[in-house]
Design a protein that fits this description.
This protein is mainly alpha-helical. The protein has seven helices and no strands. The chain has one domain: Ferritin, CATH 1.20.1260.100.
Amino acid sequence: MKRQVRSVIAFVLLSLAAGAVAGLITKDSTDIYETLIKPPFAPPAVVFPVVWTILYILMGVGAGIVWQFPSPRRETGICLFALQLAVNFVWPIIFFTEGWYFSAFLWLLMLLGLVIYMTCNFYKAKPAAAYLQATYIVWLVFAGVLNLWIALVN
């Protein structure tokens, strides 16, 4: 049991660390969000770190669960988890630091595809791990709509 808990904690910490490092890299450029023309449904900037913290925890728990069940799906699932985490890491750099809003939207579409693929893989390995990714997928769709709106208007 301790081993199972440790794997979940390790993946949660990895996810949170990736988000924290991305946040540190882009911290001087995220103020741009306030200056952008945004749709009426755009959340205030304070919402994003809260939502992303929850999402990083959920994706880490899901990966930790998959890690516990040796199978061919485990290796693929963990590779997809790492890949989507890397793609996720780069998005704020493209959007905030570089200001390439349409490129960020295309990058987000790639991230969404990876997360859906990862979630399908997680489902075949352990359905509970996949269910934890549902909120992440919904958020990415919302973020994609927001990103596209910003790209088209700014």
